[in-house]
Amino acid sequence: MRTIDLSPLYRSFIGSDHLASLIDAASRAEKQSTYPPYNIELLGDDKYRVTMAIAGFSKDDVSIQVEENTLTITGTKKAETEDKESKERKFLHKGISERNFERKFQLGDHVKVLAADMENGLLHIDMERVIPEAKKPRQIEIGSRLLENQ
Description:
The protein is of the alpha+beta class. Helices cover 15% and strands 35% of the residues. The N and C termini lie far apart (63 Å). Belongs to the small heat shock protein (HSP20) family.
């Protein structure tokens, strides 16, 4: 019996309830690099946080963009030839990766990016699902009529 690993659904999708689109997008997301490492947290009923470990990157090196339902985080370091301090440094071991990256997350319907902050080498991006009033369930009273001219 074959088992289906649904972990890709939890790695790249935030607040989406459409299983078919999730499975389709998860197959595309599997082609992404695993760098930089990240966490996705559920902070409340409709509140989420993505935390990425981006040691060595400054605020100026990181770009965050939301287009339609895609959150894109890009990190670009300047070339080491431009940094004269790095010319003087000699590493015996260099295990902290500072390579450029691009990470994309599919956002669910009505998920809005609220804020981003960077602290101690961690980038935090807070999001919330804000359902419009027109989409929320409403109670219909029995016997009520729709009056055209009120």
